[in-house]
Amino acid sequence: MYITSVMYEFTFCYCYPVQKLIDQANQIGECIYLSNWEGTQYFNKEVVLIIALSQKGIHIVAGGMTDINSATGLKTVKAMVSYTAFLKTVTATG
C-alpha cells in the first residue's frame, strides 16, 4: 500500500505537472514566431532573443541530481514495480 501511494505521489504530483510545464515552455518560441512579429518595429531584438532562447529547452532538476519529467517518472515506477516483484519472489521462496 505504501509503495502505491509513493508511486502515485511521485508520478501525478511531481512528474506530470512538471512535464506539462516543460511542454508549455517549449511552445513559447513557436507561439511567438507565429504571432506576426515581423510587422512590428519595436520589439524585434527581444523577440528574436526569446525565440533563440526557447530553442534551448528547459530542464527541471531535483536536488541537482536528476531531471524531473515523464520519462523519469516512468523509469521510477518501473523500478518500483520490479523491486516489489523481486521482494515478493524472495519472500515467497524463503
From TrEMBL:
Residue stretches spanning the membrane: none
GO CC annotation, single: plasma membrane
Membrane protein topology class: Multi-pass membrane protein
Localization in the cell: Cell membrane
Gene Ontology molecular function, alphabetical: odorant binding; olfactory receptor activity
Key words of the record: Cell membrane, Membrane, Olfaction, Receptor, Sensory transduction, Transducer, Transmembrane, Transmembrane helix
Claim: Transport is one of the keywords in the record: no
Gene Ontology biological-process entries: signal transduction
Domain of life (superkingdom): Eukaryota
Protein name: Uncharacterized protein
